[in-house]
Amino acid sequence: MKKYEVFFQCSLLLFFLWSSILFASAQEGPVPKVFQNESAGQNLEKDYYFPAGSRFVTNIPTPSQFFNHQIGHSHTRYDQIVDYFKILEQRSGRIKIDTIGRTWEGRPLIVLKASSPDNIRNSEQIRQQHIETINKAKENRIVSNETQPALVFLGFSVHGNETSAAEASILTAYYLAAAEDPVVATSLAKGIFFIDPVRNPDGYDRYVNWVNANAAFPPNGSPLDREHNEVWPGGRTNHYWFDLNRDWINQVNPESKARVSYFQHWLPHFQGDFHEMGAASSFFFEPTKTDAQESPLVPKSTYQLNQKLATYYAKALDEIGSFYFTKEQFDNINPTYGSTYPDHVGSLGILFEQASPRGLFQKTSNGDLTYPFAIRNHFRIALASITASIDHRTTLLENQLRFFQSAFELAQKDPVKGYLVDLKYNNNTAAHFKELLARHQIRYLTNNRDRKVDGKDFEKGTSIIIPTAQANYRLVKVIFDETKTYVDSVFYDGSGNSIAYLYGFSYASLKQGVDNGESDQSSAINPHAIALTRSNYAYLVDWRQEGAAWLLSQLLQRGILVKSASSPFELSDQGRTIGFDYGSLLIPIQGQPISADELFDLLQKLNKRGNITIASASTGYSGKGIDLGSSGFKSLAPQNALLLTGNGISAYEAGEVWYTFERQLEQPILRLNLDQFSRVNLEEYQVLVLASGEYTGLSSAAIERIRAWVKNGGTLIAFGRTGQWLAGQKIASFQFLDGRSDSVVPKEEKPTKTKERFDYASAQGREGTKRIGGTYFNTEIDRTHPIGYGYTQKTKPVYRNHTLFVELGDQAYNNVAIYSKSPLLNGYASAENQKSITGTASIIVENSGNGRIVYFVDDPLFRGISFGNARSFFNAVLLGQVLQSGIRR
C-alpha cells in the first residue's frame, strides 16, 4: 500500500468526524450545501468539479487522496502543490516539470508541461521548430507548420491572496494527467499546455498560512470575520510587497525575470491569466471595452480572437449556471499585465477574474460565495481555454506569424527609426536596462560615433541605439511611449507606459537609418569602471555616477571618513583632467580609522563590486573650483534609517523603500509597525521614512516625538498623501491647491461652486477626466541643491497617479523640483489637470530647527524601476544631513 494511501485512510475518521460536526452545525446556521453535503459522502472532484462522466486512470492519486482534504475545503500550500505535481510527473508520461527560477524567499518557480507522451519526449525539438518558423516570419517568409502543436500557457495566482486560481491549477493538472477521454487525448496530441500554478509563491503562502490559521469552524460567511480580513500587508504582493502583475515589462523581481525569460524561450500562442476580484462581482473574461480600451500597437486580429474565444467561456459558465460579464471595467491599454504582455509580443493574452470569497465562503449581495464555487469556475474556464486553443490552433499560429511579419512593415512607416540612449555615468542602471532589453528579445546597437541630436550630446561607447526595425517593434514603442491623446478618459490602471522615463536616461529619436553600429548584446551588458590606482593623499568619486550612493553607504557603514562637495571642481589624475560635480565624494587618507593599505584594499573591492570609478588624487589643489581642503566639503555621518509600516500605509511604497535599502543601497533599515512606535529610541536613527498613507495610529505623544526629533536634527522623508497628514499635524506647513479632491483647504474657505446638472450615465466618464491614474510628467530640478545632486539634466520625469497639487514652499531655495511648463510627457491628463499641475511642487524641503523634512509629492521609487528618481531619494537619505538650516529665503 502506498504511503499516501495509508495516510489518507488513517485520516478518514478525523475527516468524517469533522464532516459530521460541520453538518450538525449547519442545521443551526446557514452553511452552504457544498460543505454540508460532504457528510453525506459527496466527492467534490467527481460530483462538482469535473465534467459529468469523467473517467481517470487509477495509478495517479486524486488531489483529495494526496492532500487528505477535498479541494475547496482548505487552502493548499505551495509546497504541497509542488509535491503533488512531482507525483503527477512520476506517474504520468503526459507530464514534465520545468523549474524556471526561485523567488526572493527561495521557493522554486515551477511550470508543469502537459501533452501527449510523444510531444513530451520531443518538446525541445517542437520548441526549436516553432522558434525557427517565427524567425522565418521575421524575415518576411511565412511558412505554415500544420503539425505545430498549440502552445498554451495557463498562469494562476500572480496575486498571492487570489487562491482559487491556484486550486484550479491542481484540478487542471490532474485532469490532463489522468483523464481517460478521447477528447483530452486529442487535445494533448495537438497542444502542449503549460501550467504555472502559483506565479507569486511567497505572497501565496503568506496568505494561505493566514487563512488556514484563521479559518472559522464551521465556515463563517460574515465579511467581518477575521478569516476574510488578512493583516497588513496582505498576500497580494511578493516578498518585497511588489505587485508582480505590474512587473512583466519592468523586470525588477526574480519571479518576473524567470517568467519572461521562459515566455520568450517558448513564445506561446496563448496565455490565460487567472485572478480574483471583489466578492460582490461575478466572473469576468475578455473582450474588454472595444477601441477606446485597446492598445493601438496590438493588431485588430488579436482582439478579434478574444471575441471568438469568448463564446467558449460563455458556454462553459452557462453549463454550470455561473454568471459573468465582459466589455466592462478592465482594459488592454497597459502592457505590463500577464494578460496584456502576450498581446504585445505575438501571443494572445486573456484575463479571467473570479469573485473572491477570501476564505471558505462569504455572504454577498449575490448570495453565498463559496471557495469551491470560485475554484470550479476557474477550472472550467481553464478547460475551455484548452478546447478553444485547439479548435483555433491554426488561427492562433497564423496570427502570431503575421504579428512578427507586420512589425517590420510598421517600422518602415514609422518616422522614428531608432532611439539613441545615453548611458554615461550609469554603469549599473545601464546593465539593468540592457538585460531588460535582452530578456524581452529587443535588439540594440553600439553607438560608434559622437552625435548631437535635439540639442543632446551622445558620446560613442557610452550610448546605444535601439532600432525600431525589429521583430519586437511594438515593445520598443512601449518602452519609449509618448502617447498623450486617448479616446477614453477612464483607465483600469495607468495610461502612461514609457519606462524609459523612469530610468532617467537622456535619449533622442532618430529619424534616419541606424546601420552604423554593431551588436552590443553579448559584449557590453555590463560596462566596466576604470580600475583604481593607489593614492597617498585622497580618493575622489564623481557623484553623477549612479553607483556613488551605494558606495557612500558602504563606506559610512564601515566608519570611513567621507566628505561631500558643495561645489563642482576639477582635478588631474594620471595626466587626465577630471571634472567632479556637486555632491562628489572626498575620501582622505588621513584621519581614517584604518590604515592607507586597508583603505586602498577596501576601495579596490568596492570599485570592482559596485562597478564604480574611483579617482586617485595626489594633490589638494584643484585646477578649477574648490580645493580639497575647502570648507565646501561637508563631512558625512552614518544615517540609520527607520520605516514605519502597518495599516493605512501603502504597502507598495513601503515595500519599495525596503527593497531600495536592502537591494540597491545594501543598507539595513528598521521596519517598525505603528503600534510599536512608542518602544523605539528615535535618537538612534537619523532618517525616518513615511510612505504615502494615513498615520492615524500614532498618538499625540508620538506625533510630538516626531516633531521634536526633526527639530533636533533628523531627516524626515515623506511620500504623497503623507504630506497632507504632516501639514494637518503642524509638523510641516505644506499647502495644497484648492479645488482638488485631495485638497486640505477647510470647506468654509472654499469658494461657492456653480451648481450644475449632468446625465447620471455620464458620471463615470466625466469623473474619470478629473483623475490622474498613472501618467508621466516633466519636472525641473535644481541640480545645485543637495537633493538634486548628481543629475546631469535640468529636467526629471516623474510618474504620478494622484491629484495632489502642492504649492511651492515659502523657503524659496528649497523648492527642489517643480512641474515644468507643458509638463505632460506620456499618458492621459485632462487639460484642467495639466493647467493645475504646472508650476506646482514635486519635491520640497522644509527646514525645521536643526532638521529637515523632504517631501516627495510623487513616489520616487515607483515599482523599483524608477532609477532616475531614486537618485533624489538617495540624496535625501545620505546627503539630507548637509542641508543648511539657516537657509530660509
Automatic annotation (TrEMBL):
Secretion signal span: 1-26
Molecular function via GO: metallocarboxypeptidase activity; zinc ion binding
Listed InterPro entries: Class_I_gatase-like, Peptidase_M14
Pfam families xrefs: Peptidase_M14
Any Gene Ontology biological process: proteolysis
Keyword presence, Coiled coil: no
Residue ranges of every copy of the Peptidase M14 domain listed in the record: 74-393
The organism's place on the tree of life at top rank: Bacteria
Keyword tags: Carboxypeptidase, Hydrolase, Protease, Signal
Family: Belongs to the peptidase M14 family.
Protein name, UniProt field: Zinc carboxypeptidase
Species in which this protein is naturally found: Sphingobacterium detergens
